[in-house]
Specification:
This protein is 49% helix and 14% strand. By secondary structure, the protein is of the alpha/beta class. It folds into four domains: 115 residues, 2-Layer Sandwich (Beta-Lactamase), CATH 3.30.450.20; 171 residues, P-loop containing nucleotide triphosphate hydrolases (Rossmann fold), CATH 3.40.50; 68 residues, Helicase, Ruva Protein, domain 3 (Orthogonal Bundle); 85 residues, no CATH class. The protein has a five-stranded antiparallel sheet. Strand 3 and strand 4 form a beta hairpin. Helix 14 packs across helix 16 and helix 20 crosses helix 21. The structure holds adenosine-5'-diphosphate (ADP) and magnesium ion. Adenosine-5'-diphosphate binds next to helix 8 and helix 16.
């Protein structure tokens, strides 16, 4: 009696479990006829007990309820099978069918388990979709960040910004040209920071600062004991440090022709040898170069390899000088004044009049010169409102339409004394000093080295260096 009750209870519990299961359970006999099917299975497969009746699974496939039958496969192959299937109502279901054997090893039943994965795949698609969108947003945000950081108020510079944004997204080599101080290095870094390589290294190589004899070992590294004086452990080159990232070849026009050939081979083959090494090293870098020289002219003069120019100049970016985009000047002034106020804890303000005068000036040293002038006048002026007399003489003169280079010294003295710009008295020595200061500063800003300045002005190079020191003019 107790056994019977236990048995009944167990059957009831199994039946409950069978019906309550969230997964579909379908039990078929060896001919593929349904013995039992739970509610979940009817819901998932979109089929009812009535649809099934006494039909075999092959009949149901013929009638289009299933697109293939895992049960039939199990009966044929005599093993458990799992498949992703689509059923009549369009749902995607994951089906596992298990054969049950009798004592003789013949299949007596097949138990099919089905789980609706439509929702899962929809979720997966939704996640994928969201991920795609996040990627797009991130990209747009970084580009927005770039367009906010790069001042481009003028039409000229906005065109450049568009190119920069599209260059950031691709992997091509780019060549940035423009006068000294126009923002070539700044733009190169912006491109890297907004590219897919942004989390990888950005390695700047100043081609004008590395002596020709060291170039190859600096760039490509060397094996231990490759040459006298070489570190016994060898050294990794700058190129290898930039692997997966960006190499910025600044002032590429200064690179010696022999070195250009080695660089070209590396760009073409994407691999290089260390000095003294015979194992090629393969790396993946994007190359951004910059120069203030006219490389096409240099090609004509055989001072720059045409094939190298072709390789580095896949995307040309020419940054216009500041005098050709005067609309950018006021914003640059205001931004850098803000920056300097923060840096030195100052509260200097600039009037519209001075903004206008500074906008009219030609700025041969471009943004760098402009930033230097702002810093200088902000630091030396004694009042919070910057005054005209704080401006360097060259800018005041420009405002008076009396360019220094066209007039004699007498005119300069007269125009200063005659105008009310400078306020009080000014001594001859002050005029000469200021003129000299401007002269040397302009030459340095134009990229001349002390040795060259000495040549041009027929003076001793130590005198040039002394003057630079006197006026606190920094140079590379
Ligand atoms: N579009 C720009 N917006 C804001 N600042 C800029 C911009 N371009 C350049 N600068 C600033 O101008 C100065 C000179 O730029 P830099 O890249 O060193 O010039 P270059 O390499 O052409 O000599 C830097 O302080 C730089 O941050
Ligand atoms: Mg630079």
């Amino acid at each position: 009696m107790t056994n019977e009750i236990e048995y009944k209870e167990r059957v009831e519990a199994l039946e409950n479990a069978f019906e309550a299961s969230y997964d579909g359970i379908h039990i078929l006999d060896s001919e593929g006829r349904t013995i039992l099917i739970n509610k979940a299975c009817q819901r998932i497969e979109g089929i009812t007990k009535e649809d099934i009746g006494n039909k075999t699974i092959s009949q149901l496939v013929e009638e289009g309820y299933y697109d293939e039958s895992v049960t039939l496969l199990v009966l044929e192959e005599k093993r458990a099978i799992t498949r992703l299937q689509r059923v009549k109502n369009g749902k995607e279901i994951l089906v596992t069918a298990m054969p049950i054997y009798d004592d003789e090893g013949e299949i007596v039943r097949v138990i099919v388990n089905s789980r609706d994965v439509t929702e899962l795949s929809e979720l997966r698609e939704e996640i994928q979709d969201k991920e795609n969108r996040i990627y797009l947003y991130e990209e747009q945000l970084s580009l927005k960040d770039m367009s906010e950081r790069v001042i481009a108020n003028s039409k000229n510079m906005r065109t450049v910004l568009k190119t920069i944004m599209s260059v950031a997204k691709v992997n091509s080599n780019a060549l940035i040209t423009g006068e000294s101080g126009t923002g070539k290095s700044f733009i190169a870094e912006m491109i890297h920071k907004n590219s897919q390589r942004k989390d990888q290294p950005f390695v700047k190589i100043d081609c004008s600062a590395i002596p020709e004899t060291l170039f190859e070992s600096e760039l490509f590294g060397y094996e231990g004991g490759a040459f006298t004086g070489a570190d016994t452990k060898g050294k990794i080159g700058l190129v290898q440090m930039a692997d997966k990232g960006t190499i910025f070849l600044d002032e590429i026009g200064e690179m010696a022709v022999a070195m250009q050939a080695k660089l070209l081979r590396f760009i073409q083959e994407k691999k290089f040898y260390r000095v003294g090494g015979n194992e090629p090293i393969e790396i993946d870098v994007r190359i951004i170069s910059a120069t203030n020289r006219n490389l096409e002219e240099m090609v004509k003069e055989r001072r720059f390899r045409e094939d190298l120019l072709y390789r580095i100049n896949v995307i040309p970016i020419d940054i216009p000088p500041l005098r050709e985009r005067k609309e950018d000047i006021p914003i640059i002034i205001i931004n850098s004044l803000k920056h300097i106020n923060e840096k030195y804890g100052l509260n200097k303000k600039i009037s519209e009049e001075i903004l206008n005068i500074m906008t009219e000036y030609e700025w041969p040293g471009n943004i760098r010169e402009l930033e230097n002038v702002i810093e200088r006048i902000a630091v030396i002026s004694s009042e919070d409102n910057l005054r005209l007399e704080d401006l360097p003489i060259k800018i005041k003169h420009n405002a008076l339409n009396a360019p220094i280079k066209k007039k004699g010294l007498d005119d300069i003295i007269n125009s200063i004394k005659g105008s009310d710009i400078t306020g009080g008295e000014i001594t001859y020595k002050e005029i000469i000093d200021e003129y000299e200061h401007d002269l040397f500063e302009t030459l340095i800003l134009k990229g001349y080295k002390p040795l060259r300045i000495a040549e041009v002005l027929s003076m001793d190079v130590t005198t040039v260096r002394r003057k630079l020191h006197k006026y606190n003019i920094r140079f590379k």
